[in-house]
Design goal:
The chain is mainly beta. It is built from three helices and 54 strands. It is 5% helix and 40% strand. The protein has a 15-stranded parallel β-sheet that branches. The chain has a 13-stranded parallel β-sheet with strand order 3-6-9-13-17-20-23-26-29-33-37-40-43, with no helix packed on it. 49% of the residues are buried. The chain binds calcium ion (CA) (2 copies). The site of one calcium ion (CA) has 7 residues, from loops.
Length: 558
């Protein structure tokens, strides 16, 4: 009998868990309807207020002049398939944000267009307090302005934001936050940002977003502003900022990064493309006595930015700002930045401690300025980089902590850095603006020129989503994989163990061109594919006769 009772109990649980209902909203509907597809509600807010746990609200095409409060947890709000609902805030001043999510969990906002919120402190989507598993994806946000007047004066009190997350709970952070695949453009933001996470936010992903043509910072991870009342929790941390594109994020009144970290901690910033912004990226710390710690910037492309590719450090440490510690700037391609000829070149360094700058390509503009450093970089490891300029590659100007150098050799000797770096044309596939191609030609001196003691992170990819190679990594954001390369598995065991491959080279996870993988373990051994491997048409996977090949991961062809 006990067994039967248990079974009934499980059935009951299952029934409850799948009781999710789809409801619908149409601008032509009515709030006295029942919310079915045939009889949809009219307003999004009415719909949300009448959802139950795990329900989905589907929005049909149309214009909705509403500002929304997500009044409950465990709901999904999305465009109905192939529909394009547009929320507009015209004339509604009852709240700052078009969508407010305050102290809610398990909420997804998916596929909405959000626009025309024009007022002081206007916001597209606001998440605040605490919350677990908030997802904002596939949304298009534009025309969020702090003022209707494009020429309105700007000061630190004029702000607007596209997507803003305030972790303002002293003890419980915002966790499992995902902001992905959104497009944000044409916003006048005053002193605020396109997409920002601020304060007690622990565990976030900002990925695959496109942010362009806004008047300040594109994407920002912030701490130490007092957002969390508990100073020990007041840092956006343990986050990923990856595969985003930021361009034309230029402030007329400040220098705005396409990507900015101010007061964040333990954040990986990878595979982003940032061009024609104030900085490509800035790793700073504005607040006195505070630290921005352990930020990794890898496999990104920064080009044609106004002031520098990369700015790093506390800009007025110690009296006027905090400091940056343990930053890693690795395997980035920086190309013809400082178009304003401001005297920084690719790198503008203020004050940081124990940071690493290695395996990068710095392709200078015709200013021939390698870097500008003004406040000291104790413990900096700055080496294994490639430097070049079309103009005069042997006579770079560098102003480094109050010493001036007018050649690369003098810079090396004077600073004790870059002893293993090279001045050489990295032979990019196309080194001409406005449409550069940052792939390396097969004769590039950047190939295998990185730090030989470099160890690639398991998930680390180059700009083609090809894997990085430990030890013989290339400089810049592209790892060069020969189209006709051949990779032989001659060991016994896992695919992901480099020791099982000839010359310890694991093939790229996406095999392209006419490259070949040969599976040839010893007779008593086996090759175990323990990861995702893709073989594109034209490439080859050859398993030698009578050899054992097992797949515990995933093998796909396309
Ligand atoms: Ca290599
Ligand atoms: Ca590549």
């Amino acid at each position: 009998m006990k067994k039967i009772h248990l079974l009934l109990f499980l059935l009951l649980i299952t029934t409850v868990a799948v009781a999710q209902v789809n409801y619908y909203v149409s601008s032509a509907g009515s709030d006295i309807n029942s919310g079915t597809f045939a009889t949809p509600w009219k307003t999004i807010q009415y719909g949300i207020n009448h959802l139950n746990k795990n329900d989905t609200l589907n929005l049909l095409s149309g214009t909705y002049t509403e500002k929304i409060i997500v009044s409950k947890s465990n709901i999904y709000i999305r465009n109905h398939v192939l529909n394009t609902p547009v929320l507009v805030g015209t004339g509604i001043t009852s709240q700052d944000a078009m969508i407010t999510i305050s102290d809610r969990s398990n909420v997804t906002i998916d596929g909405l267009e959000i626009s025309n919120n024009i007022q002081k402190d206007a916001q597209g989507i606001l998440v605040d307090g605490t919350g677990n598993k908030i997802t904002i994806q596939n949304c298009t946000i534009h025309d969020i302005h702090f003022s209707a007047n494009p020429n309105a004066a700007v000061n630190s009190g004029t702000n607007a934001q596209g997507i803003i997350v305030y972790g303002s709970n002293a003890s419980t952070p915002v966790t499992n936050l995902k902001i992905s695949n959104n497009t944000l453009f044409n916003c006048r933001l005053g002193y605020s940002e396109g997409i920002a996470v601020n304060g007690n936010v622990d565990g976030f992903e900002i990925s695959h977003n496109l942010v362009h043509d806004i008047t300040n910072i594109g994407i920002d991870a912030i701490g130490h502003e007092g957002t969390s009342p508990n100073a020990g929790n007041d840092q956006a941390r343990n986050g990923l900022i990856m595969h985003n594109v930021a361009h034309h994020c230029i402030s007329p009144y400040a220098t705005s990064g396409g990507i900015y970290v101010d007061g964040g901690k333990n954040i990986i910033i990878e595979n982003n493309l940032s061009f024609h912004n104030g900085y490509g990226i800035e790793i700073g710390c504005e607040n006195v006595g505070k630290t921005t710690d352990s930020i990794i910037v890898r496999n990104n492309i920064f080009y044609d930015n106004e002031i520098a590719a990369i700015a790093m450090g506390g800009y007025e440490y110690p009296s006027g700002s905090g400091k940056v510690t343990h930053a890693i700037i690795r395997n980035n391609t920086c190309f013809k930045d400082d178009f304003k000829n401001d005297g920084n070149g690719e790198l503008y360094l203020s004050y940081s401690e124990n940071s690493i700058i290695e395996n990068n390509i710095f392709y200078l503009s015709n200013q021939d300025i390698l870097a500008y450093s003004e406040r000291g970089q104790p413990g900096l490891k700055f080496d294994y980089n490639i430097f070049y300029s079309d103009n005069d590659p042997n006579n770079f100007e560098t102003d480094w902590n109050n010493s001036n150098y007018s050649s690369f050799s003098a810079f090396k000797a004077g600073t004790g850095t870059n002893n293993n770096s090279k001045v050489a044309n990295p032979q990019l596939v196309n080194a001409i603006l406005p449409n550069p191609d940052f792939h390396l030609k097969n004769t590039s001196p950047a190939i295998d020129a990185g730090n030989p003691s470099f160890i690639s992170a398991k998930t680390e990819m180059d700009i083609d989503l090809q894997q990085r190679i430990s030890g013989i990594v290339d400089c810049g954001a592209d790892e060069y994989w020969a189209a006709n390369a051949s990779y032989t598995f001659s060991g016994n065991g896992n695919w992901t163990d480099a020791n099982n491959w000839t010359n310890k080279i694991i093939p790229p996870a996406l095999l392209t061109g006419n490259a070949t993988i040969i599976i040839d373990p010893p007779a008593n051994g086996a090759c175990i594919l323990d990861r995702e491997q893709q073989i594109k048409a034209g490439a080859h996977l050859i398993i030698q006769a009578n050899k054992k090949f097992r797949i515990t991961g995933n093998l796909t062809t396309k």
